[in-house]
Amino acid sequence: MNWRIPLADLDLGAEEMAAVQEVLQSRWLTMGEKTQIFEHDFAQFSGAKHAIAVSNCTVGLHMACAAAGLGPGDEVIVPSLSFVATSNAVRYTGATPVFADVLSLDELTLSPQAAAACITPRTRAIILMHYGGYACRMEEFFRLAEEHHLTLIEDAAHAVGADWQGRALGTLGHIGCYSFFSNKNMTTGEGGMVVTQDDALAERLRLLRSHGMTSLTWDRHRGHAWSYDVVELGFNYRIDELRAAIGVVQLGKLPGNNHKRRELTREYHQRLQQSLPQVGLPFLGREEHSSCHLLPVILPEGTSRVRVMEAMKAAGIQTSIHYPPSHLFTYYRRIHPEHVPLPVTEAAAERELTLPLYPGMSTEDVSLVVDTLAEALRA
Ligand SMILES: *Cc1c(COP(=O)(O)O)cnc(C)c1O
């Protein structure tokens, strides 16, 4: 499908191509010097003490859960209104995700009160997801985590470059995970980063990334090691040099691109408020500290979202839904056969519509999207 305005678009050019070519010419393609540079730059950018590049955010979340020592019998509180990777990561360790509701249709992040109500003696961790790049209610979650000795993991897949009181989202909890999938604010195709301020957790995460091995192929290539020991059951969750090299370039572009996303989000909000006051605008007025990854709107109750999406599609405008809630998926209904109602999540999942947002959009594009939406809602 050739969209007039796609949901998301990449900012890729000559610099990324040159970076890839340089790696190919170097003849070292697996984790090495470029990865070290990428991790160093990302740590500096985010203020994290340790940044560990991985092959995607999902494995990063798995590593985070494993490093937190989660296993069968443990419970982890997660939002259902997220990409399914958030709860899948918990399941990989054998632990049980417990779904909690989000705050409101204006604030689509985990409710601290709902999370607190889910705490049992088995609860070991909470995974926070900064929906659209807007911070969760951190003060309340810090208090909960401290009081109940819980590990706080941040799914910061949307939130690269966003902050809470000047601190980068993803660096606030014990471990944070970012995604560089191709529709995220910066991309390496597939790719991710895990960050922590804790030296012991960082060491554990590095081991888990590469089979629990005490030395890397890269170390041996450089003559720094002859052999290795395997000290725990790890995985191959490594990134490669091609992606790391793209990541370095993309990270450099991120502040400028996030700035454009913020301006476009303000433009959208202004126009939507003017012409469609019946449409809800989650996180209104919070652009400043957000990475503005998504532009979610809440359609009026009773609107046929499918019809709206079809009308937008007929005009060449791609829209999406974030998210079909995880607790209603067949797999998770099997894990939790008793239906636990999450009324806000279910209402959001029925009425949310995601509009196109990417740095290369023009204000004319924003106008066209808003006008087309207005027409679709009138019809
Ligand atoms: C994209 C995304 C992920 C998964 O990231 P991958 O890099 O594709 O594994 C996890 N959580 C959320 C909220 C996401 O949006």
UniProtKB/TrEMBL annotation:
<keyword id="KW-0663">Pyridoxal phosphate</keyword>
<dbReference type="GO" id="GO:0030170">
    <property type="term" value="F:pyridoxal phosphate binding"/>
</dbReference>
<protein>
    <submittedName>
        <fullName>DegT/DnrJ/EryC1/StrS aminotransferase</fullName>
    </submittedName>
</protein>
<dbReference type="GO" id="GO:0008483">
    <property type="term" value="F:transaminase activity"/>
</dbReference>
<dbReference type="InterPro" id="IPR015422">
    <property type="entry name" value="PyrdxlP-dep_Trfase_small"/>
</dbReference>
<feature type="active site" description="Proton acceptor">
    <location>
        <position position="184"/>
    </location>
</feature>
<dbReference type="InterPro" id="IPR015424">
    <property type="entry name" value="PyrdxlP-dep_Trfase"/>
</dbReference>
<feature type="modified residue" description="N6-(pyridoxal phosphate)lysine">
    <location>
        <position position="184"/>
    </location>
</feature>
<dbReference type="InterPro" id="IPR015421">
    <property type="entry name" value="PyrdxlP-dep_Trfase_major"/>
</dbReference>
<dbReference type="InterPro" id="IPR000653">
    <property type="entry name" value="DegT/StrS_aminotransferase"/>
</dbReference>
<keyword id="KW-0808">Transferase</keyword>
<dbReference type="GO" id="GO:0000271">
    <property type="term" value="P:polysaccharide biosynthetic process"/>
</dbReference>
<dbReference type="Pfam" id="PF01041">
    <property type="entry name" value="DegT_DnrJ_EryC1"/>
</dbReference>
<comment type="similarity">
    <text>Belongs to the DegT/DnrJ/EryC1 family.</text>
</comment>
<keyword id="KW-0032">Aminotransferase</keyword>
